[in-house]
Write a structure and sequence with these properties.
The complex is a heterotrimer of chains A (312), B (409) and C (281).
Chain A: H1 2-29, H2 33-41, H3 47-56, H4 63-75, H5 89-124, H6 129-143, H7 146-161, H8 175-189, H9 191-206, H10 209-216, H11 221-243, H12 245-259, H13 264-274, H14 277-305, H15 307-310
Helix pairs in contact in A: 1-4, 1-14, 2-3, 5-6, 5-8, 5-9, 5-11, 6-9, 7-8, 7-12, 8-12, 9-11, 10-11, 11-14, 12-13, 13-14
Chain B: H1 2-33, H2 35-39, H3 41-68, H4 77-95, H5 99-109, H6 112-132, E1 134-136, E2 143-145, H7 146-150, H8 195-231, H9 233-248, H10 251-262, H11 268-294, H12 298-305, H13 310-347, H14 358-368, H15 377-404
Helix pairs in contact in B: 1-3, 1-6, 4-8, 4-13, 5-15, 6-8, 6-15, 8-9, 8-11, 8-13, 8-15, 9-11, 10-11, 11-13, 12-13, 13-14, 13-15, 14-15
Chain C: E1 4-15, E2 18-30, E3 35-39, H1 46-52, E4 62-71, E5 74-75, H2 81-90, E6 92-95, H3 99-102, H4 109-120, H5 127-137, H6 143-146, H7 156-168, E7 174-178, H8 186-202, E8 206-211, E9 223-228, E10 231-237, H9 238-243, H10 248-255, H11 272-280
């Protein structure tokens, strides 16, 4: 298993290098330096201002030199400062981490628990009317765009009934009032898709021979599901859940922006709206880094969950 | 130009007729309502083929005329789209003659929910098609589409008005100025355009985005998947590396980055490229997995032993056997493309302002909700239309999955 | 009173392409400690009969169209859910065909057997000792060392022995073995059958062996019932049926058993057309 872990970690490195190359190509090569200057300074800027802009950022250097600088900066997390606020991106990220996690983590856990319970129940009562009804409900929930969930939540629940505040955030315990609605929406957006996928996984497990053995031993259906089927479905479950991370990030972007939560997602949205290229690039890179980390972590979790991988 | 008007009228009539015929004969009527159609499959298929040919002829005529009168954008994105989708359809039809597809088609015909979903999708396609074909009929040679011609009676107002209202929203005088028309089913939006018409026009945007993106990502994903799954070794390593790098950047971040880099001159084609480049990974994985499984079966070894080239094996043996995955992925991917467009438009990196898009309507609807009085019709219309298409596509994809593999439901 | 009394049992499957009559009315009895072999080809209904004894078949497609399964005086088909669960494993235990997939891959063999014991014999305090005892009973050497292995770490033969140990650990009155040796290679087959013979000798337990192979039942089963297309076409003591088969199907099956030294020029086939005609009579 040790070699397996080492191999997994080593594999992550060329991927990371690939991502660094990708960000370089996207942000420095696709548009000419002149075009980049126009994007940053506006159409009406003078030639002199643009040239100055290009020089200070070293964009007149040959591409290979630029690439070397880029790789070094990315590898040492020394991101360029934001165009609009002039603050180093590292500091901006540090400030935004806590609010982001306050929404993402509880929302994710809540959504996961609900999806799991729902799908296990569906497998328990499979092919019944309840099962079919829940499936249709999940498909419908999947078909509503995140934006609509948020707008509906804000318009109807917050504005209309005064139960929840519309937006804002307070550090410390006072934040809970502001978090209720965002966390609830975070849980809901992935619920439909997750429950359906979990159900498919568990249905496949329940057709396996070891389930027949478990019943033949006299185990009640609840134990068969919660012990045997669940543990075997764990691997597919982990894969699925980690695959949902990108969608979670999108949810975070929208929710933070709509509800005025000063997290990292909000940073990105502001950056897009103000045309702040270094900030956008830093956010994209950070997102990729986190995702690669998460993927490597899941491979480790596989080894923990499945003895067949652990002991080979 | 009188000849042009004559052509438009004839073309419009022929188009309506052909499209409606195809819609009815191929999809909605026979399986749902006419029992004897179910048994006389050959008659059904003959009529279907004739009407499809008629439709194809009409479309060819349309593009011929555009070329002939040298309209500047005769090589429009629409033509690329039609060509691309035509190619994909051709591949599908070739794959569809296999036995697996015959059985799936039979199962699908018995699935009422799936057929209903397909009818709804075709309805959206119909509306989108009405908006697609356009000729310079308006003032100063501006182009008008068939949809415009139908809704000519519904003019624009100056600003907001509630559904079926008889005055402007912020007109609080005792004698309100009457509107140009009292039949704005869903009211009007900020620039006075009728919301119902805007929603209908949004169909085209959604369909073009979905269609163009599919035309990009399906060949790319299927080809890479086939290559990686068949050749293995370094080719597979390369394919895996490519899609791992692309997949490492979370989808929304990559999309936003690509759109951001396009700057102010974003357009639907740019969006489709962005969505295509991020979307091929999913299909590639599916096709690669299935190709790896299939290439171990003996029929592939047999084909190699009689001297068939790699390309022939991939195209003639492996591709038809993964086509059903492509179809299901196409339908479900379409729905996620439509949903993603809404998000991108909200973030400000979606359709350029001025395109009729549901995403933009939802985006403007958000600020409209905090007006006084509340303007809710813009948002609701777009959200309902979006939901309808996405739900229908999801249900369709689901029933296609069941049709091809009934054990896995 | 016999331990097991099956009367006029008929089992139907309701599928989307119609109703399949898997078992068309059979009668069987089994006394305590007796060994019965049910022999037939695939599709004859023998596995379905075996699974029906504790209603292991999934209920929506399966319908018990008629008949009774009386085990120790009670009708299994009319049992309440909790009585049924006590029956399963505690009084009727199973050994299935594919040991590699029938054992749960993510639990140790110790945990899987312990689960069964905890369910039916909660009075047992020292689980590990009990499990080791049963593993040794089925011929696994070094049982204590192997307690915490996972199924994939054992060979096919050993996995099957673990299944048998698991079945025996709850001290059932009846053991149903559904094609226990079919998935194993021939040398291991012989070993497992020897194990079964040993168990039959030492334990006072009834055994039903379901197989398509007439060759393994000699010297093992007291009685044999031959099933063909959902019906029992012949039954009796093993000696009688083997030496004096009445039904043409039985005759053909017996002729298929390979014998050392026999000079056979042509392969024996089973004439299904003639059997069809017989069935329609």
């Amino acid at each position: 298993m040790f070699t397996y872990l080492i191999r997994r970690l080593l594999y992550a490195i060329p991927i990371l290098l690939g991502v660094i190359l990708l960000t370089f190509l996207l942000f420095r090569v696709v548009n000419t330096p002149a075009q980049q200057a126009i994007n940053a300074l506006g159409q009406k800027s003078s030639m002199a201002a643009r040239d100055e802009w290009i020089k200070t950022r070293g964009l007149d250097q040959p591409l290979t030199a630029q690439f070397r600088v880029h790789v070094w900066r990315m590898a040492t997390f020394n991101f360029e400062p934001s165009e609009t606020s002039k603050r180093p991106m590292g500091e901006v990220f540090r400030q935004g981490v806590v609010p982001s996690l306050c929404v993402t983590f509880p929302g994710f856990v809540l959504g996961f628990i609900i999806s799991l319970t729902l799908s296990l129940y569906q497998v328990f009562a499979r092919h019944s009317a309840a099962d079919r009804g829940i499936t249709v409900l999940c498909i419908m929930m999947m078909s509503v765009p995140t934006v609509v969930y948020i707008i509906f939540g804000q318009a109807v629940l917050a504005l209309g009934s005064n139960w929840f505040p519309v937006s804002g955030f307070q550090p410390g315990l006072g934040a809970i009032r502001f978090l209720l609605l965002p966390v609830a929406i975070m849980a809901i957006i992935n619920l439909g898709y997750d429950a359906r996928m979990f159900r498919a996984i568990f249905l496949e497990e329940i057709a396996q021979d070891y389930v027949r053995t478990a019943y033949a031993k006299g185990l009640p259906a609840t134990k068969v599901l919660s012990r045997h089927v669940l543990k075997n479905g764990m691997i597919a479950l982990i894969t699925l859940v980690v695959g949902q991370l990108p969608k979670l990030i999108m949810g975070t972007l929208l929710i933070e922006s709509f509800f005025g939560i000063p997290g990292i997602g909000n940073v990105l949205v502001q950056a897009i709206q103000t045309g702040d290229q270094p900030a956008v690039m830093a956010c994209a890179y950070l997102g990729a880094l986190l995702y690669i980390l998460a993927l490597t972590l899941t491979d480790i979790l596989y080894a923990v969950a499945d003895p067949r991988i652990r002991l080979s | 130009m009188d000849a042009l008007k004559l052509f438009t009228d004839v073309f419009g009539a022929a188009f309506f007729f052909a499209l409606g015929f195809v819609f009815l004969w191929w999809v909605a009527m026979p399986p749902l309502f006419i029992p004897w159609m179910r048994s006389d499959r050959e008659a059904w298929e003959r009529w279907g083929s004739w009407s499809t040919l008629l439709l194809a002829g009409v479309v060819a005529m349309y593009y011929g005329v555009r070329y002939f009168i040298q309209l500047p954008s005769w090589l429009s994105g629409d033509l690329l789209l039609v060509g691309g989708l035509g190619g994909v359809t051709f591949l599908l039809v070739r794959a569809a003659s296999s036995e697996r597809w015959e059985r799936a088609l039979r199962r699908f015909r018995g699935d009422r929910l799936g057929l209903a979903a397909l009818s709804v999708v075709c309805l959206y396609i119909f509306v989108g098609a009405l908006e697609t074909f356009r000729l310079p009929m308006g003032e100063f040679g501006a182009e008008k589409s068939l949809l415009d011609l139908i809704v000519q009676k519904i003019p624009n107002e100056r600003s907001y008005s509630a559904p079926l209202a008889s005055k402007l929203l912020n007109d609080t005088s005792a004698e309100p100025t009457p509107l140009n028309s009292n039949f704005h089913l869903l009211g009007t939006e900020q620039l006075g355009k009728d919301v119902f018409v805007e929603t209908l026009k949004g169909c085209r945007t959604a369909l073009i985005l979905g269609g163009l993106t599919s035309a990009i990502y399906i060949p790319l994903g299927a080809l890479m998947g086939l290559l990686g799954g068949y050749f293995r070794k370094w080719v597979d390593d390369l394919v895996q590396y490519l899609y791992s790098v692309l997949a490492s950047v979370p989808e929304i971040l990559l999309l936003v980055s690509i759109m951001f880099v396009q700057g102010q001159n974003r357009n639907l084609l740019g969006m489709s490229i962005a969505l295509g480049v991020t979307g091929w990974v999913g299909l590639c994985r599916l096709v690669r997995g299935e190709t790896m499984r299939q290439s171990e079966r003996t029929y592939v070894t047999a084909a190699r032993s009689i001297g068939q080239s790699h390309w022939q094996i991939m195209m003639r043996h492996l591709l038809p056997n993964v086509m059903h995955l492509v179809l299901i992925n196409f339908v479900l991917g379409f729905s996620s493309i439509v949903l993603t467009e809404a998000v991108l438009s909200y973030l400000g990196v979606g359709c350029p302002v001025g395109t009729a898009s549901w995403g933009l309507m939802i985006d403007s609807g958000r600020s409209e909700l905090s007006r006084d009085p509340v303007v809710w019709w813009n948002l609701t219309a777009a959200a309902v239309a979006l939901f309808g298409l996405v739900l229908a596509l999801n249900l369709l994809g689901d029933s296609l999955r069941r049709a091809f593999d009934p054990k896995r439901s | 009173m016999p331990l097991l009394d099956i009367r006029q049992l008929a089992i139907h499957f309701h599928t989307e392409s119609g109703v399949v009559e898997a078992v068309k009315g059979i009668n069987l009895t089994l006394e305590k400690g007796e060994t019965l072999a049910i022999v037939g080809e695939s599709g004859s209904g023998k596995s379905v009969t075996g699974m029906a004894l504790t209603r292991l078949l999934p209920e929506p497609p399966t319908k018990y169209a008629s008949g009774e399964i009386i085990f120790d005086g009670k009708d299994v088909l009319k049992m309440r859910a909790d009585d049924l669960r006590k029956l399963r494993g505690g009084r009727i235990a199973y050994v299935f065909q594919e040991p590699s997939t029938s054992l749960n891959p993510v639990f140790t063999i110790r945990n899987q057997i312990a689960e069964a014991i905890r369910l039916h014999r909660p009075e047992v305090k020292n689980l590990d000792a009990e499990i080791v005892k049963h593993l040794e009973l089925v011929g696994i050497k070094d049982a204590a060392a192997r307690l915490h292995s996972y199924p994939h770490q054992l060979s096919g033969g050993m996995q099957q022995r673990v299944m048998i140990a698991m079945a025996l650990s709850c001290q059932p009155d009846l053991l149903v073995a559904d094609e226990p040796t079919t998935a194993l290679d021939v040398t291991i087959q012989a070993q497992i059958m020897d194990q079964f013979r040993e168990l039959r000798r030492t334990l006072d337990m009834a055994i039903i062996l379901i197989t398509h192979n007439f060759g393994i039942i000699d010297g093992f089963a007291d009685k044999v019932a031959v099933m063909f297309r959902g019906r029992i076409v012949e039954h009796g003591s093993t000696r009688e049926v083997l030496t004096n088969p009445q039904h043409p199907y039985t005759k053909a099956l017996i002729q298929c058993i390979p014998r050392l030294g026999a000079h056979q020029k042509r392969l024996i086939t089973i004439d299904h057309a003639a059997l069809d005609a017989l069935e329609r009579k």
